[in-house]
């Protein structure tokens, strides 16, 4: 009996898609932000009674896929039609909302509720645009150092694969730069600067920061060295940020730091 109800419901959905999906792109959509691994709820503005609610999901120019059917009754248990949502959808008794749990990145997209209230009236439609973001942490932020010449270098901050709608900003011990719009926000410093700098990254659901030592993050990136009067020196070891040289023409051979890696 249940299978017959589902087939009947699917027939209605196909009819609605034929009649109304072409105009669904013009719906005023409610924007919803969700966090990876958490849940969101799509709340309908339309009041009961409902006869049947069909939930569809679309991405870009692709045709919508029907993901669930809700039929009010003693319980409003979704008939899930899309395998990727198995075990992740639920609805209250009045069917007036749909909750998606354990959010994934590919859950982002437009969700369309087609509402049949019975009788000869056309189905009502409500749309929701879902964007799934990651709650950023310090571990998601990467800072890299690059030499730019003219006695300067730059720190590049990134959030790896989670830079959707991320805004970056920098703070150091002497100043704070305003939030920027670049996905690879840059801080420029002088070669001699010995300070801590903090990269901040913010997306629509939160923010994170990472503080680095400019000297440590740039260690070994380039060499500021002295000029030797004679070519009798050779490197014998590197310890911490110093290169140790030895004079081959002196007995006993004197070991001393002659260059510094920055």
Summary tags:
3 domains, 262 residues, elongated, disordered C terminus, mainly beta, 19 strands, six-stranded mixed β-sheet, Immunoglobulin-like
Q: Could you characterize what this model shows?
A:
The chain is mostly beta strands and about 260 residues long. It has three domains: about 1-135, Immunoglobulin-like; about 140-215, Immunoglobulin-like, CATH 2.60.40.10; about 225-260, no CATH class. The chain is about 10% helix and about 45% strand. The chain is built from two helices and 19 strands. It has helices at about 1-20, 215, and strands at about 30-35, 40-45, 50-60, 65-70, 80, 90, 95-100, 110-115, 125-135, 140-150, 150-160, 165-170, 185-190, 195-205, 205-215, 225, 235-240, 240-245, 255-260. The strands form five sheets. It has a six-stranded mixed beta sheet with strand order 1-9-8-3-4-5, with helices on one face. The protein has a four-stranded antiparallel beta sheet with strand order 16-19-18-17, with no helix packed on it. Strand 8 and strand 9 (about 125-135) form a beta hairpin. The protein is elongated. The relative contact order is 0.12. The model is unreliable at about 1-25, about 220-250 and about 250-260 (pLDDT under 50).
CATH class category label of the largest domain? Mainly Beta
CATH level 3 topology of the largest domain: Immunoglobulin-like
- Helices, by number, come to 2
Could you give the order of strands across the largest sheet? 1-9-8-3-4-5
**Count of the domains:** 3
Overall residue-averaged pLDDT value: 75
Layout of secondary structure:
Blueprint: H1 2-20, E1 29-35, E2 40-43, E3 52-58, E4 65-70, E5 79-80, E6 89-90, E7 97-100, E8 109-116, E9 124-133, E10 142-149, E11 152-158, E12 167-172, E13 186-190, E14 196-203, E15 206-213, H2 214-217, E16 223-225, E17 233-239, E18 242-247, E19 255-261
Parallel strand pairs: 1-9
Antiparallel strand pairs: 2-7, 3-4, 3-8, 4-5, 6-7, 8-9, 10-11, 11-13, 12-14, 14-15, 16-19, 17-18, 18-19
């Amino acid at each position: 009996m249940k299978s017959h109800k589902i087939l009947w419901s699917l027939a209605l959905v196909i009819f609605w898609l034929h009649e109304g999906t072409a105009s669904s792109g013009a719906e005023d959509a409610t924007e919803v932000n969700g966090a990876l691994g958490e849940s969101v709820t799509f709340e309908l503005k339309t009041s009961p009674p409902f006869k049947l609610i069909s939930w569809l999901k679309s991405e870009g120019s692709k045709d919508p896929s029907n993901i669930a059917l809700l039929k009010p009754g003693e319980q409003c248990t979704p008939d899930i039609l899309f395998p990727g949502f198995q075990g992740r959808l639920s609805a209250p008794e009045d069917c007036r909302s749909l909750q998606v749990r354990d959010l994934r990145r590919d859950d982002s997209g437009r969700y369309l509720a087609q509402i049949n209230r019975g009788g000869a009236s056309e189905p009502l439609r409500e749309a929701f645009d879902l964007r799934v973001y990651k709650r950023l942490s310090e571990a998601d932020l990467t800072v890299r150092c690059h030499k730019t010449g003219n006695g300067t270098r730059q720190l590049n901050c990134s959030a790896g694969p989670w830079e959707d709608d991320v805004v970056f900003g920098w703070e150091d011990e002497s100043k704070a730069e305003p939030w920027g719009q670049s996905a690879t926000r840059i801080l420029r410093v002088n070669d001699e600067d010995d300070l801590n700098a903090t990269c901040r990254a913010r997306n629509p659901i939160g923010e994170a920061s990472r503080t680095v030592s400019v000297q440590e993050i740039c260690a070994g990136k380039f060499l500021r060295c002295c000029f030797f009067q004679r070519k009798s020196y050779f490197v014998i070891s590197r310890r911490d940020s110093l290169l140790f040289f030895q004079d081959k023409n002196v007995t006993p051979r004197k070991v001393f730091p002659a260059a510094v890696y920055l």
